[in-house]
Amino acid sequence: MNDGLLRGYRALDFTDGELQLCGRILGDLGVDVIRVEKPGGDASRLAGPFYHNQIHPEKSLWWFMLNANKRGVTLNLETKDGLDLARRLVKSADFLIESFPPGYLGGLGLAYSSLKEINPGLVMTSITPFGQSGPYQDFKATELTVLALGGFLYGIGDPDRPPVKPNYPLARIASAVHAASATLVANHHQQATGQGQHVDVSTQAGAPWFTQHAVFWWQTEHRLLARSGWAFVRRPDLNARVIWPCKDGHVLFQIHGGVVGIASNRATVQWMAEEGFGNEYFHSFDWDHFDLARTSQEQLTRLEEIVAPFFLSKTTEELAQGSEKRKILLGCIDGINRLSGNPQLASRDFWQTVRHDELGASLTYPAFFALSSAASTRIRRRAPFIGEHNQEVYGGLGLTEEQLFAYSQAGVV
Question: Could you count the other beta carbons within 10 Å of the beta carbon of residue 334?
């Protein structure tokens, strides 16, 4: 098994923040990813949490995770010599991924139209809040504003309260994945034609994909699906509870209708009866003809109120084991404390140990989300130090140690 499906390719990574995941994905697939940052280090290095809470640009755990499987160099693009080095790097690159504001690279003479003259096969992928064109192209944005303008935020939270921001940077993480996917599709085209292209990824345009069926309710019925909190909107007039509190946390469960729900519902009734929960209405309910397409909110709520006390009497683990044994459709809502010991992820070697000699410690990283029978997607190297591979990379361009030292003194690298 070789070291990656894309071994032999090279990428220049000029992204920031969560968007650095794009290069991490390419690196996991075997691409030689060179993380290019300004002299002194990128601002992303100061994003916490930090190893042992020591705020330091070489100890950001967030940086470690997003930049594993990459080499690292420093480069000042706003110098004449820096631009010359950038062009020389582009000549031998297959991919260039960047997240500068639209027009920034063009203003430096590094627009795609210029770079393709140097390397016609280059695939350049730009990730910005709103894309490279349109009335919003120059707007600045945060994770929150992009989710808001992408329609996603409208549906998050409780119906009687304002929208709530998710606790994770979903939009930018998704954009990084979209960008990696689009880059590989563009590479497929390049392999067939020899021609590169400029891939334009908009974070805003990725957000509506999270809204699922809300788009179709609007298109077909002109109805806005309201925030539903712990429920799932089955119809504009029917919310089905899906998040249930238990003794030590929460689980996912829904009273399903139709063929899907018959066996699960009956098993739930039987389990509750064995432990003294439920009532005559619940135990004698006609599950064979229960249909969420026709039931009323009143009837569904009545059934849910009977189930709720049973869940509150059990721990997450008791519900997980009991439902698996009885083939009940139920899932745990795991925190990282449970996720780190999840047997399914362990079987896929998802959590991998990476040695950090500079820290005198080994750290656990999340690995690639897909496995291949033909190639490894293991973490082969930790994230780079500031300018760690300057000599290695620029030496490959023909620079001597003396030239590199002079560039360092001049603030070029």
Answer: 16
Look at the alpha carbons of 292, 296, 302, 308 in this order and tell me if their dihedral is positive or negative. positive
Task: Provide mean pLDDT across the span 212-228.
Answer: 77
Cα–Cα distance, 69 to 53 (Å, whole number)? 24
| H helix intervals, 198-296 | 203-206, 214-221, 258-274, 280-283
pTM exceeds 0.85: yes
* DSSP letter, residue 28: H
Q: φ, ψ for residue 125 (rounded to 5)?
A: -115, 120
Half-sphere exposure of 232 (CA within 13 A, CB side): 14
- Token readout for 341 is 């010991």
- pLDDT tens per residue across span 304-319: 999 999 999 999 999 9
Contact by Cβ (8 Å): 130, 46? no
Q: How far is CA 194 from the centre of its chain?
A: 30
Exposure of 122 by Cβ count < 10 A (0-12 exposed, 13-18 middle, 19+ buried)? buried
Give the whole-angstrom CA distance, residue 80 versus residue 364: 41
Q: How many residues make up the chain in this entry?
A: 413
How far apart CA 171 and CA 18 sit, in angstroms, is 9
What separation in angstroms does the CA of 44 have from each of 77, 143, 185, 386? 18, 15, 28, 12
Helices 258-274, 316-326: axis angle to 10 degrees equals 120
| Residue ranges of domains in the chain, CATH in brackets | 10-209+352-409 (3.40.50.10540), 228-333 (no CATH)
Instruction: Assign 235 a pLDDT band (cuts: 50, 70, 90).
Output: confident
d(CA 22, CA 179): 6
Least confident of 50-64, 200-214, 217-231: 217-231
Task: Please list the residues that pair with 198 across neighbouring strands.
Answer: 124
Q: Are strands 243-246 and 197-202 parallel, antiparallel or unpaired?
A: unpaired
Selection from 120, 151, 11 nearest residue 72 by Cα: 11
Residue 398 clears pLDDT 90, i.e. is over it: yes
Place of tokens 């990428």: 11
Question: CA 139, 142, 147, 148: dihedral to nearest 10 degrees?
Answer: -70
CB distance 45 to 394 below 8 Å = no
Residue reference for tokens 């499987």: 69
CA 348 remoteness from chain centre: 19
